[in-house]
Amino acid sequence: MSVDERPGRTAEEVAALRERIAADSLTSRRDYLRLAVTMSGGLAVGSVAVAAGIFHRHGDGAAPPKLVTAALAPGESVAFAYPGESDHAVALRMADGTLVAYSSICTHLACAVLWRADRGERGELYCPCHEGVFDPRTGAVTAGPPPRPLPRVLLEERADGIYAVGTLQSGEEA
Amino acid sequence: MADPRYPRIRPTSGYADPRIRSTGPGPGAGGETDPERSSMLSGRLALVLSILVGQLWAITVGLDAWMMGQTRTAWWAAAFSVASFLVALFAWRLGERRDR
User: Fold this and answer.
1) Which residues in A80-108 are b (16+ Cβ under 10 Å) and which e?
2) A86 touches chain B (CB under 8 A)
3) CA angle, A89 as apex, A121 and A173 as ends, to 5°?
4) CA–CA separation, B61 and B59 (whole Å)
5) Which helix (H) or strand (E) covers residue A156, if one does?
6) Would you say A94 and A123 are in contact if contact means Cβ atoms under 8 Å apart?
7) pTM exceeding 0.80
8) What are the E-state strand segments in A22-134?
9) β-sheet with A66-69: strand ranges across
10) How does pLDDT run along chain B (100 residues), one tens digit per residue?
11) Which regions in chain A score pLDDT beneath 70?
12) Is A40 on the interface with B (CB under 8 A)?
């Protein structure tokens, strides 16, 4: 049964359908080639935009030292934003007293990374979206799909509390 | 022009009619002077599709590098992508002149 023989269709619907089917049957290899070249141009423009810095990186821009919290007990964490308001981060103190802070934006698809003291041997930075796991000592990826380590936030313990004083880029050592 | 023997069959009968899947020899049948043209078109298409895969790889590497602060690597990936696009453009435009 052809498209115009089915009951319950108006003449306009049939005409539109016939036009669409006819157009589909006329999509040629030349059209695909043109589309593929257009996509290639789009990817080239996208690559240049990426290199030119269209995306925000954690730590781009400077900010004065910021008080994160007055105190942090072993095994606890606190969320904050530094240096910008959109640069979400998490500071944590591990069981042995080591104080560290990282961007809490997963390097996979930007979900929130959580400090889970109950996971792993010494706790883990865990992204629940796709089971991404980061080493709390270095920020390196230990499991899951994230492609890069977490960018580090530098902390300083002062008399009146813990301050965020700077940032490192993903994979950068202090 | 209608065939005097079969007046209902016109040179374009079957063209763009979705009910007809196999139209048989069309109005241009027998006039093919460059039989490799079709293969070349397939070849150009395969080349450009391969280039697309390479560009997807390059943009992934470039984004990763840029996010890690390796701006130089990101620019190299961008340069590779632009060069790939130029090859694709060449395969499309140059072939277009010989085509048809």
Assistant:
1) bbbbeeebbbbbbbbeeeeebbbbbbbbb
2) no
3) 70
4) 5
5) strand A153-158
6) yes
7) no
8) 66-69, 77-81, 88-93, 99-103, 114-116, 124-127, 132-134
9) A66-69, A161-167, A153-158
10) 566 777 776 666 656 666 666 666 666 666 666 767 788 889 999 999 999 999 999 999 999 999 999 999 999 999 999 999 999 999 998 776 666 5
11) 1-5, 24-26, 174
12) yes
Quote ipTM for the complex.
0.77
| Confidence at residue A16, expressed as pLDDT on a 0 to 100 scale | 85
Task: Report the distance separating Cα A6 and Cα A36, nearest Å.
Answer: 36
Partner residues linked to A134 by β-bridges: A125, A141
Say if A19 is an interface residue toward chain B (CB within 8 Å). no
**DSSP code of residue A149:** P
Cβ A169 vs Cβ A59: under 8 Å: yes
Q: What is the CA radius of gyration of chain B?
A: 23
Contacts of B67 in chain A (CB under 8 A): 55, 57, 107, 148, 169-170
